[in-house]
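Sanity check. The docking grid for iron/sulfur cluster depends on where the pocket ends up, so I'm generating a full predicted complex first rather than guessing from homology. Inputs follow.
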Amino acid sequence: MGHHLKNTSKREIFMKITLAKSAGFCLGVKRALSIAHDIAKTNDKVYMLGDIVHNEDVVRDIKAIGIKKAKKLTRCTKKTLLIRAHGIPLKIRERAQKLGYHIVDATCPMVEEIHKIAIAMESQGFPVIVIGDKKHDEVKGIVGQLRYKALVLEDTKDIPVKKLKSFSKAAVVVQSTQNTENVSEIIAVLKTLIKDIRFFNTICKPTRTRQDEIRKLAKANETIIIIGSKTSANTKRLYQISKSLNRRTYWVQSADGLKKSWFKGVKTVGVDSGASTPDSTTNSVINQIRSYP
Ligand code: SF4
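Predicted complex below; grid placement will be based on this.
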């Protein structure tokens, strides 16, 4: 063994850890966090409806800088309402304004774009279909921009075939973090049912890049570690994509979730993290993997 390897542990020589380039905060989350930090500096009555992102560590930091979580909106004079990257339904925004909140909007521009498309298509007379998770705030925000009730589809099993056959036209938008393959499957079915279908693939660019990268990583490595909160929908999606290509895919929230046995005899490990996972968490996971004898 060469002299230059003196400080390198045996494990590092044999195990190669590759971190996805697109791992960690997406543009929208970075932007929302910087807006949050900026207003927290000058304003001590900042409220948010729900958590800024689906990540416990980030939520703790936001609390520490003084931003509070509002359970419900109340009449007020000097409060600021910070709108999260996912956006909110129009009705809630209007109610907040009426009650006296000053609104600071951190809705991701790519989510705003989805709102604009949905509103424009509805005003042109198209019923709107949203492909996304029914319970996710981004989806509620999209649906909440519209005058008529939009149909939300999570997968092909959800498609109300009979009902849709009576649609002569429809416009389809997609939650920004959806799985591209799931969306293609749904669209293929919708095309057979609705004659005039306008499809807007609004999965955002950072999500596409991330999904392309995890597909490559899952194929090129023996073991894959996905890092992120169990409440994070986009982390779940990365996990599902990776697991479908590589059975040795594991999802952890932090270094504590790792098991030594996952790395026994393993020479290549791919690591990726969700759009709301801080780099500090990812780094501590990588350090922990490196420390295994
Ligand atoms: S996932 Fe995409 S659309 Fe959603 S906040 Fe991040 S960059 Fe914006």
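Relevant for the grid: Residues 3-25+206-291 form a domain with the Cobalt-precorrin-4 Transmethylase; domain 1 fold (CATH 3.40.1010.20).
Also worth noting: The chain has three domains: 3-25+206-291, 27-108, 110-203.
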